[in-house]
Design brief:
Blueprint: H1 2-57, E1 71-77, H2 84-92, E2 97-105, H3 111-115, E3 124-129, H4 135-143, E4 150-153, H5 165-173, E5 179-183, H6 196-213, E6 225-228, H7 229-234, H8 244-254, E7 259-263, H9 279-291, H10 297-320, E8 337-339, E9 345-347
Parallel strand pairs: 1-2, 1-4, 2-3, 5-7
Antiparallel strand pairs: 4-6, 5-6, 8-9
Helix pairs in contact: 6-9, 8-9
């Protein structure tokens, strides 16, 4: 009996040992597969992180080199004496910017005097309105002097940083978008303290854009808007003040252009510091979105083709004519001029 029990114990112990060894082998294999999976995931995440860090550090990404020298920046300025010179210096520090158009919109302070050091700079074009016409009209004036295939709107108050410009160029240069908006709230959707009314109004406009035009935006009212110059000309802009933003949003969607947002940095200022946006401009934005709901993009294309032909004919005439006697590239009153009803002063050739 003892021998039988001993034999049973030996067989049982050997079988249990084999089972335990098999379990250990299986566990080792499972651990090995888990380690391989975690290693591959960590490598993938590290590569993505390195790519993201490299993109953030590089102010001039590789994919944007195709657009080098092909971007014009329009800067409407009204009583921005303290910041307009600094914004020009920051824009000139961006390799992708080839043309800077400053539009002094009838300023009553020293804004024009602050930009006079750039009168003879070939990269900077300085335009003036005799009276204040509004931001939209200033942008339309600057658009007439654009020589580049792409155009960006930049405020002169330093709320938007030109270091974010390469980030806006990436979706357009890669073919992912036709229009790019720099969103202040894409990564920070919460309402900021002291800006409840303004941000709530922007959210209402965003919802209205989605209802009327089917486009989802987080910051329709952002200043940073990047377009192809040809698309902006097709829109036949009519804006005078801050309704520029809802007008281009409405017409871009009516033209079938793809709008994409990218996050940007933003440093807000108060009305005491010079901010000019008012509550009434929100109601104007709502009316503008409703007004252009049935805007005919087909008629705009036909009108744009005729306008392009007319502009090309004018360019040929200008090449044959003698150059103007104005010094530099500013519309200065020190030379012979003719004034339009809109208040713009043009040199007479």
């Amino acid at each position: 009996m003892k021998s039988i029990i001993l034999i049973f114990r030996q067989r049982f112990s050997s079988q249990s040992l084999q089972i335990a060894n098999r379990v250990r082998i299986v566990m080792l294999r499972v651990r090995f597969e888990k380690s391989k999976l975690s290693l591959s995931l960590s490598l993938s995440l590290s590569r993505r992180t390195l790519n993201r860090v490299g993109h953030d550090r590089d102010e001039f990404p590789q994919e944007n080199k195709a657009m080098a020298g092909d971007l014009a920046v329009i800067v409407p300025a009204y009583n921005e004496e303290a910041t307009v010179a600094e914004i020009i210096r920051r824009l000139q520090a961006q390799p992708v910017v080839s043309q800077i158009i400053i539009v002094d919109d009838g300023s009553t302070d020293g804004t024009y005097a602050a930009v006079t050091p750039w009168l003879n700079d070939p990269q900077v074009t300085i335009l003036r309105h005799e009276v204040n016409r509004g931001k939209g009209r200033a942008i339309r004036t600057g658009l007439e002097k654009v020589r580049c295939a792409h155009v960006l709107i930049q405020d002169a108050d330093l709320e938007y940083s030109p270091s974010d410009i390469p980030r806006l160029l990436t979706p357009m240069s890669s073919g992912q978008a036709d229009v790019v908006y720099g969103s202040r709230y894409l990564h920070h959707p919460q309402l900021a303290k002291g800006r409840f009314v303004l941000q709530s109004g922007i959210r209402c406009i965003n919802v209205l854009c989605r209802i009327l035009y089917g486009v989802r935006l987080t910051d329709e009212a952002t200043c940073y808007k990047l377009f192809r110059s040809s698309d902006l000309l097709r829109m036949q802009l009519e804006c005078e003040r801050f309704e520029f933003c809802p007008e281009v949003t409405a017409k871009a969607t009516r033209l079938g252009l793809r709008i994409q947002e990218v996050p940007i940095n933003y440093e807000s200022r108060s009305a005491e510091e010079g901010k000019k946006l008012r509550t009434t401009d929100g109601w104007c934005a709502i009316c503008t979105l409703w007004r252009f709901k049935r805007w005919n993009s087909g008629l705009a294309d036909s009108h744009h083709s005729e306008q392009t032909t007319h502009r090309q004919f004018n360019v040929i005439q200008c090449k044959c004519a003698s150059p103007a006697s104005a010094v530099g590239n500013t519309y200065s009153q020190n030379h012979s001029q003719s004034t339009t009803p809109q208040g713009m002063v043009f040199p007479t050739p």
